[in-house]
Amino acid sequence: MTRYIRFALEPGVPVTAPDAHPSVRRGLLEEDGRIRMPDGATAALNQVKLLPCVSPSKIVCVGRNYADHAKELGNQVPTEPILFFKPPSSLTAHGAAIVHPALSELVSFEGEVGVVIGARCRHVKAANAESVIAGYTVVNDITARDIQKRDGQWTRGKGFDTFCPVGPWWTPKEEVDFASFRVKTRVNGELKQDAPVTDMLFPVAAILEYVTAVMTLEPGDLIATGTPPGVGPLAVNDTVAVEVTGLGTLENTVAAQR
Ligand code: MG
């Protein structure tokens, strides 16, 4: 399976550094654990700093896209997709800390499948949606649930720095069987979420039609497709692992704000 990663050659590079940063590289993570760069150079994974596998202009998220998740939080099952943004400044990498903000008393995980956009597009019809998808990745839509509820809209609750772990890699759509994906989230090894993506209320093609009726998507943009039931709190020092079966596992540990 092809695994596209982004990384920095120096440890001090910020996790949100753009592709234009002189130390940021893209490469393939080979089966033997070596990283191969486009110029043929190689590096060991433990000698680089892993970055978010995509560098999107925007992160478009779908809320309440699994009926049983809408119900578990006491919400109506939506009749059309609920869209919101997470800012690119919320991205963080596999293995990096999720910082628990001092402003929140209820930080929750949300394991999700991420869609990586492959072509600039607008007004995409669902029937053609496959043509604008590059591949898939794993996303954890971290949420300060108390702030989300208090504000009535989701910008602060979903937008803290480190609230969008993504990766560790993305894989081309041709190499995976999307319909077979299950989202499984574990906290400290205990299974919390386990659902097939076929339970989504709005499939990816319908989401892409809905989003691009409004806005242009760019290559590398990220769509978070919503979380299944089983969401719950994260405490400082917890380890949260989101697995999309057949794709990969994204793991992060929660750290206190300093
Ligand atoms: Mg979500």
If you had to describe this structure to a student in words, what would you say it looks like?
With 258 residues, the protein is mainly beta. The chain has 2 domains: 4-51, no CATH class; 59-256, Fumarylacetoacetase-like, C-terminal domain (Fumarylacetoacetate hydrolase, domain 2, Alpha-Beta Complex), CATH 3.90.850. It is 10% helix and 36% strand. It has 4 helices and 20 strands. The chain has helices spanning 67-72, 145-151, 155-159, 204-212; strands spanning 4-8, 24-29, 34-36, 42-44, 49-51, 59-63, 82-86, 91-93, 97-100, 107-108, 111-117, 133-140, 143-144, 164-166, 171-172, 182-187, 190-196, 222-224, 239-244, 248-256. It has a 6-stranded mixed sheet. A hairpin with a 2-residue loop joins strand 16 (182-187) and strand 17 (190-196). The longest helix is centred in the C-terminal third of the chain and has 9 residues, at 204-212. The protein is globular. The structure holds magnesium ion. Magnesium ion (MG) binds at residues 61, 110, 112, 141, 224, 226-227.
Task: Give the SSE map.
Layout: E1 4-8, E2 24-29, E3 34-36, E4 42-44, E5 49-51, E6 59-63, H1 67-72, E7 82-86, E8 91-93, E9 97-100, E10 107-108, E11 111-117, E12 133-140, E13 143-144, H2 145-151, H3 155-159, E14 164-166, E15 171-172, E16 182-187, E17 190-196, H4 204-212, E18 222-224, E19 239-244, E20 248-256
The structure holds magnesium ion.
